[in-house]
Every structure is written in structure tokens, then in C-alpha cells.
UniProtKB/TrEMBL annotation:
Domain annotation Translation initiation factor 3 C-terminal: ranges: 85-170
Family in the record: Belongs to the IF-3 family.
Organism listed in the record: Flavobacterium cheonhonense
Protein name (record): Translation initiation factor IF-3
Subcellular location: Cytoplasm
Subunit structure, as described in the record: Monomer.
Keywords: Cytoplasm, Initiation factor, Protein biosynthesis
One Pfam family it belongs to: IF3_C
GO molecular function, one term: translation initiation factor activity
Translation initiation factor 3 N-terminal domain ranges (all copies): 9-77
NCBIfam families linked: infC
Keyword Cytoplasm appears in the UniProt entry: yes
Length: 174
């Protein structure tokens, strides 16, 4: 069946003489193990050990294959609902000209529409660090231009030779 079943079923339940039986179409109670196994065969279901540490162990009458299938289906749905957040980067120089700025702004807009976070940064090479005000103005202008698509998560911060700003996409419902 599976590499290792999460539960012991039918004849794999060993070392017990009595089990507490629960399930549909059955009166809950304590039964001899052989009687519980016979009942499971009669109803054409599996005897599944749910709580092995109880005294006596608790077993349930159910279709084990169907149970595992529904459990996997539930896990798959939960996985599908969780979203992966991707971070896209856009790099500027402190003296980026208008055409390059517009091109990068359009890309940033596209990334935010797709639902990705945006990491915009100005990279200062050599002595261009003296233009850090220009870099800050550039990033703030970008934030203003992208206002309808995303909101600024972190204002421009200078980290070494980079001035970084994060913009998160706006929720589609708003």
C-alpha cells in the first residue's frame, strides 16, 4: 500500500486482546479483537487503530483507502491556498535618465500587478555616493508613481553602497 502506514490496520494490529470500537453503523463499546475484525469484514471496511496508547486501544471501522485519499486531498487544497511571495528587483543608478526610469517603472508596475513584492534599489559606484539625495528622490518618485499598484513597506534606507526600498502589491479586493 504505502511506504509506512500512519495507522495500523486489520491484521497489522498486534498484541491486543480487546479494542474499544467506534465508527458508523456500530454501537461503540469494548470488543474482543477477533470480534472487531469479524465485524469489519462483515461490513466490508477496515479496522483502523486510532489511539494505540489508550487502554484498551481505540479502533474505528472505516474505509481506510477512502480516508487516506480524503486526507491527501485536504492537504493538497491547503497547499494550493498558501501563496508564495516572490520578490522582484529593480536596479537604478543615481543618475538614471528619463527613458530608463520609465522603462523600469513599467516593469515595476507589471511585477506589482502580478502580485510580486518589489525591491527597488539605487546602486552607488565609486564616488557616486555623493549623489545619495538624488537616489532617494528617485526612489520616492518611483513610490509615488506606483502608488495605485502598491504600498511602500520600507522607506529608502542606505545600506553600504545601496539605497533600498520595498513596495508590496495592493490587495486585489481594495
Amino acid at each position: 500500500m504505502e511506504k509506512t502506514a500512519a495507522h495500523r490496520i486489520n491484521e497489522l494490529i498486534r498484541g491486543v486482546s480487546e479494542v474499544r470500537l467506534v465508527g458508523e453503523n456500530i454501537e461503540p463499546g469494548v470488543f474482543k479483537f477477533t470480534e472487531a475484525l469479524r465485524l469489519a469484514n462483515e461490513l466490508e471496511v477496515d479496522l483502523v487503530e486510532i489511539s494505540p496508547n489508550a487502554d484498551p486501544p481505540v479502533c474505528k471501522l472505516m474505509d481506510y483507502g477512502k480516508f487516506i485519499y480524503q486526507q491527501k486531498k485536504r492537504e493538497k487544497e491547503l497547499k494550493a491556498k498558501s501563496t508564495q511571495i516572490t520578490v522582484k528587483e529593480i536596479r537604478f543608478g543615481p543618475q538614471t535618465d528619463e527613458h530608463d526610469y520609465e522603462f523600469k517603472r513599467k516593469n515595476a508596475e507589471k511585477f506589482l500587478k502580478e502580485g510580486s513584492k518589489l525591491k527597488a534599489f539605487v546602486f552607488f559606484k565609486g564616488r557616486s555616493i555623493i549623489y545619495k539625495e538624488q537616489g532617494q528622490i528617485l526612489l520616492l518618485r518611483l513610490a509615488q508613481d506606483l502608488e495605485e499598484f502598491g504600498k511602500v513597506e520600507a522607506m529608502p534606507v542606505l545600506e553600504g553602497k545601496r539605497m533600498i526600498m520595498f513596495i508590496a502589491p495592493k490587495k486585489k479586493g481594495k
